[in-house]
Write a structure and sequence with these properties.
584 residues
Length: 584
């Protein structure tokens, strides 16, 4: 074979390869009809090239007529596929497309029913010509007048293509319009020249229809590759955005999980909902549970169901935001408090609730504890006031009244000097006792000695007075305690010691106690211990142990730590550690 035949074979192979390749693409994306149109065109052009090659090498009129008749069939299918591709990608006037389609189908019908086809009445002989050193055949024939029909359809295809390109240019897609408009003008002109010149016998040349078809295939391939490249770029951007979105969602879920916040979403009118892993954990839903409204209501505390249904009715009625607190029964039989907050958005015509939930059980317990502590503090305050009132009335007031009566009697009833002296000594003793009681009560309210002489002197004096008043041995030891301790720390340590020793006197039945306070490495360490009955420290924190709570709160207020160690029958040890340098 010569150069022309080899080129024809190469062109046919290219059409075949492209057709098979895009057939695979179309199989993966069935919605891409332009892939299917390009596949049909390429495979049909490949087959047309083979018949065209047969026409070039025909030796007899019958042989030429055979290849020409069969070449018309894949040529028609190919050109219809091309028109379909143009309609998909360029648009164009629909009536022009269907007019062209009807003309080609009419020409195909006439070709099938006519003995020698629509192009020739008769092929008289096959002429020979030399191109690039190769001898090729061309028809010497009597044309069929009906051959004008496919020629008119070619002209209509050119008009349709150029019109679509102009409309595309006006819409702003000038690159595509310029490429397709130019290519179809060249293709149409070449085909018309070949069809009129060769088939009507005006030019003694073989048919080279496959060569101008390359213009069409190149344009179609350019557009598809450009479209694929653009799709790939878009896919990369989408993947990048999806990656960023996924990372953002992961960060949001991580932040929500770290904050112990669960997230959920539900479309209004539907029973099922999506909820995050943290939300399932808070609600107590397992991964195998199928969430429905009935299932959720069954887990809710009966006293909160009416409030829940009222909120649902408000949301269904158009309310955009809501928040409520309710209780959920956990699988272990306990109760969890949940705070839920949600907002309604409209997405694609549907109302979507997006919500967040937080487990506030500990907060509710803390609130209840605060209320209980406040009640107990007020009760303790009233009890302390009552105690002071009793001491002032039953002891001091009566003692003063009695002293006043004794002095009045002494004044009004003259006695001998020895008797008067004895009574005055007794009165002086009573006044000294009253003075000590007043001082003790004053120290309990606020130790003035703490301001005047410092913590060590105040604690030593308090231990001495308490031991004398209650016949309990109290050992006091201080080491390296600075005189310039901040007042809040001094008062805290004094009150902790006071509370601890008073508990020893009231509850422990101890015979001895020890107070040791030392300053080491920027911290003050206080230890109050006794040999009394002791108690269950865990149970004491739950029950009415206001004194222990008071100690803990005082120490925490000055950024210290308190540790209470006790067991039944083993005495009690209270350790307090407070940093003196609290800057930063």
């Amino acid at each position: 074979m010569g150069i022309v035949s080899n080129v024809e074979l190469i062109i046919s192979g290219v059409y075949l390869a492209l057709g098979l390749m895009y057939l695979r693409f179309w199989w993966d994306e069935r919605s891409r009809h332009d892939y299917l149109a390009f596949t049909i065109s390429c495979l049909s052009y490949a087959l047309f090239s083979w018949f065209e090659l047969g026409m070039m090498h025909s030796q007899t009129p019958g042989e030429y007529l055979f290849f020409a008749w069969w070449a018309f069939l894949p040529g028609t299918v190919a050109i219809l596929g091309t028109a379909w591709f143009i309609r998909i990608n360029l648009g164009g006037r629909l009536w022009l497309f269907w007019t062209y389609f009807a003309l080609r189908i009419l020409a195909l019908g006439l070709h099938l029913i006519m003995k020698n086809g629509v192009n020739f009445r008769e092929v008289i002989s096959v002429g020979q010509t030399t191109s690039f050193g190769e001898t090729l055949g061309y028809p010497v024939a009597v044309p069929n007048p009906w051959m004008v029909l496919p020629h008119v359809s070619h002209l209509l295809l050119i008009i349709f293509s150029i019109d679509a390109s102009v409309r595309l240019w006006r819409s702003g897609e000038r690159r595509k319009a310029l490429v397709f408009g130019t290519v179809f003008f060249l293709f149409g002109a070449a085909i018309l020249v070949l069809a009129v010149g060769v088939l009507w016998g005006l030019v003694p040349l073989p048919m080279f229809g496959s060569v101008p078809i390359l213009f069409i295939i190149a344009a179609m391939l350019y557009y598809l590759n450009y479209d694929m490249h653009r799709a790939a770029m878009l896919s990369e951007k989408l993947e990048e955005r999806d990656s960023r979105l996924t990372e953002t969602l992961d960060q949001l879920q991580l932040a929500a999980a770290a904050a112990n916040v669960g997230m959920w979403t539900r479309k209004i009118g539907e029973e099922k909902m999506w909820f995050s892993e943290k939300a399932g954990e808070i609600w107590g839903f397992s991964s195998t549970d199928e969430y429905t409204r009935e299932y959720f209501v069954q887990k809710m505390h009966p006293a909160d169901r009416e409030m829940f249904f009222t909120t649902l009715r408000e949301v269904d009625g158009g309310k955009d935001e809501f928040q409520l607190e309710y209780r959920i029964r956990s699988k272990d039989g306990g109760i969890r408090w949940i705070h839920s907050r949600g907002k309604v958005d409209v997405v694609d015509g549907s109302r979507i609730i997006r919500g967040a939930i937080v487990d506030i059980t500990n907060l509710k317990i803390a609130e209840e504890a605060v209320r209980e502590l406040s009640h107990r503090l007020m009760k303790a305050q009233e009890e302390e006031r009552a105690r002071l009132a009793r001491e002032l009335h039953d002891d001091l007031s009566q003692s003063i009244s009695l002293l006043s009566v004794q002095l009045t009697i002494l004044r009004n009833e003259p006695r001998d000097l020895d008797y008067v002296q004895d009574q005055l000594d007794q009165s002086i003793s009573d006044i000294e006792r009253l003075s000590r009681d007043v001082r003790r009560i004053s120290h309990e309210l606020h130790p003035a000695i703490l301001d005047q002489l410092g913590l060590e002197a105040a604690l030593k004096n308090f231990c001495s007075d308490l031991a004398a008043a209650h016949s309990v041995r109290i050992d006091f030891e201080a080491e390296d305690l600075p005189r310039d301790l901040p007042l809040d720390i001094s008062l805290c340590l004094y009150r902790v010691t006071q509370e601890s020793l008073q508990n020893v006197i009231k509850h422990s039945a101890a015979t001895s106690a020890k107070v040791r306070i030392v300053s080491v490495d920027g911290k003050v360490h206080l230890v109050v211990s006794d040999n009394g009955n002791g108690f269950d420290s865990a149970a004491a924190k739950i029950k009415d142990a206001l004194g222990l709570i008071n100690i803990d709160e005082r120490v925490r207020a000055v950024k210290g730590k308190a540790n209470i160690i006790s067991a039944v029958g083993e005495g009690t040890r209270i350790e307090v550690h407070i940093p003196v340098d609290r800057e930063g």
